[in-house]
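Regression test attached.
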Amino acid sequence: MAGRERALAWLYSKPEARAWALLAPGGFWLLLFFLVPLLIMFVYSFMPRGIYGGVEPGFTLEHYARFFDPLYLEVLQRTFVWSIACTVICLVLGYPVAYLIVRGGRWRTLLLFLVVLPFWTSFLVRTFAMIFLMRDTGLINNWLLKLGLIGQPLSMLYTPFAVMAGLVYGFLPFMILPIYASLEKLDPSLLEAAEVLGARPRARFQKVTLPLSMPGVVAGCLLVFIPALGSFLTSDLLGGAKEMMIGNLVQNQFSSARNWPFGSAASFIVMALVLAAVMIYLRVKDKNTGEAGSK
Amino acid sequence: MTPSPKGQCVVEFSGVSKSFGDLKAVDDISFEIQGGEFFSILGPSGCGKTTTLRLLAGFEQPDEDGGEVKLLGQTVNKKRPYERQIAMVFQNYALFPHLTVAKNVAFGLEQRKTPKHEIGDRVRRALEMVRLKPEVFLKRMPGQLSGGQRQRVALARALVLEPTILLLDEPLGAIDLKLRKEMQLELKALNKQLGTTFVYVTHDQEEALTMSDRIAVMDNARVAQLGTPAEIYENPRTAFVAKFIGESNFFEGQARERSNSRWQIGQVGETSFQVPHHPSLEEGCEVRIAVRPEWMDVFKPDAIPPGENALIGTIRDIIYLGETMHVIVTVPGSGDVTVAVRNEGQLIKPLTWKKGDAAAVAWLPEDCQILEKD
Amino acid sequence: MNLRPPPWLIAVSVAVYLFLHLPILVLVVFSFNSSKFSVDWRGFTFQWYHRLLERPDILRGLKVSLVVGVAATVISAVLGTLLALALARHRFRGRRAFEGFLYVPIVTPEIVTGISLLMLFALMKFPLGVTTITIAHVAFCISFVVIVVLARLEGMDENLEEAAMILGADEITTFWKITVPQLWPGILAGALLAFTMSFDDFIITSFVSGSGSSTLPIVVYSMVRKNVEPSINAISTIILVVTAFLIYFADRLLQEK
């Protein structure tokens, strides 16, 4: 078949052409439907607001300047603080679980699956589950009332507590999995060596396990912090209008407030924070390369 | 596909070079392989032996002006692996995990559009040739086989094609010692029985010496020496070859004077030894020789046989190796010299030497291997 | 060395597991509760599930979700596999930059992706609907497929393809007979994950779907906002069960060697 031979000859002669042919469809899709929209958003963030909420030709920094307004600074600050708090809580709760799974022996696959499952389950459904539990007529209040522990329903929803609970609930698996992956690679003979050298369990953990699990810890923190920064559903459904995060602010600009350029600017600030976090992560990761202690 | 025409050159490398970026993996190598030979390429890791094999297989191409690879007289530089009529056994066997043993072995035949009825027979015979019972193994999956069995299937998959040339890339590396020795003999027997040219890459010098008709010793992207096992072992041409194959003692000096067919080589200090004449020797030149431990003997300093080279030193250690004893003598100016003495039974007829004794190491001038500059 | 975990560790972990799973279990259990308003258990019933079948918005939403899901999965599986092949097997200029670029959709907050796509479609005057939803879903699924397939490719023995070639198979034959069968579990797993993400997606979809076409999560969201009745529990349970199956199969595929 002459066609086949020609195809083969072409494949063989230009290795770079082969590569680009494979990259083209997917690359083009991502370019047009991911990169270009971001660029449009970037450009819009500098344009004045039009009558219907869109943009008008021109250049302005007013949208970014608005963020110095205490109202919006508060939103930024809240987002930042909550994201960090959520990350810390997830770390404290998640590390022990990851540690347990590694030591789980034959339960390991099951335990892991039980973490992977929430990871992939619809965020909306999981957030609703929280609502179901926490609302005034929800399960928790119902039982507390029945048990006579409280006289009136506790107002759990639409509070910072609810949002934090929702955030932690949502992102906990994202912390557990990378730490697990890191601990799993740890060579047990290192701990045995430490034991032979006289280290007690706590010292072994502090001096061997913990440092070597750092890559996983850092990755986990990143995997929680970043989506937390950009989160929207949790604060929307569990926090209400009072506890606004940047995600809600952005969404507002595209629904009721109708201010696309301002929404774009807010979006860009989130992106900037996210990219900064990624850069820091890559820096820290490069410092730690040299996978000493891995199997 | 018939067995290699004996006496004819089936593989020829002329001035072949291959670089990866700045690194020259293969540097201007040339050699010929004869039909039916068991030809080994031997060397330490990183010497270029695997690259050489891959150039032969077609997985790598020589550099732009990096010489020619010829198969059966034809230049094949630009030919793809599937266009070269060569078979190969990989280091980690590379059996297709999703196909049965039967399908694995039949793969090459199917590619050649061999008629179905013929495939079944040839696959069976190939498995029998590698001593695997077809009834048992045809339907198995590679995942169910042991290392040794997988290796045999890989071999069957290559041999079923009745190739002129068979490449083997350190195929016995992952196999335990006893099985390895058995397989070495089997491979050697197959080579003779089938008449197929075997090109065998290994870092194990014992293996190469056992199995090969000729060995190409590679060092740092070049061929250091090419010859029969006897030539390589008994007449190493460079210090590298002398060190890599077996053990050697090294002595240095300057050529002083020549009498008849012998040169007197003087060392720093008053000592000297004699070597037979060699075209490369002239008065005043630096000489370096290698002498194998088993060609040397230990004598009392006052009882050296006439006509032998001798250097006097002190016994540093005596090592028990079972078949032989190694007597290590420290000779001023030449370092530690190892002499291999046959063990005639330390319990019945022990050596009389002790650590600290003064002793002379002696060897015949004919046993000096004059080394080329590396 | 004693590898058994200390009791306090087990206690903390059990608490965390309960925290992770109890809300969902409760949700599922109460989808069978015959009481509409109270959280008291009144009896077992399937009525809320039947109710779902009577709701045209749910059925329409399911249909849209399935159509989008299948389309987005197929497209992202193909594109993602091609990208993974390029990255694993070829050296080309700008390779590292491209790899980095591939990870950006994963870290970008969904809200950012959502609104930027909305603005693109507005600029192009492209009507919002099933097509725009599918386009958006492919855009964020591709990267995941690439990661899964790439991992599989890099774990694959390169010698296998060489062995096939020296046995006489050219590049095209080798690809179909050796590479693809080896890769297939990875591609399938990537496809299942892509489908899961598309099926469950809410934020991005809410921006690019316009008023006409709602996927299932969007219908659920409006149900949650409006009034809370056990039907929400029922549809949530269904979504959960479907996801669980998909993830279980993807997991098994990835474990297979």
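Expected vs. actual: identical. Residues 183 and 209 of chain A are 8 Å apart (CA to CA).
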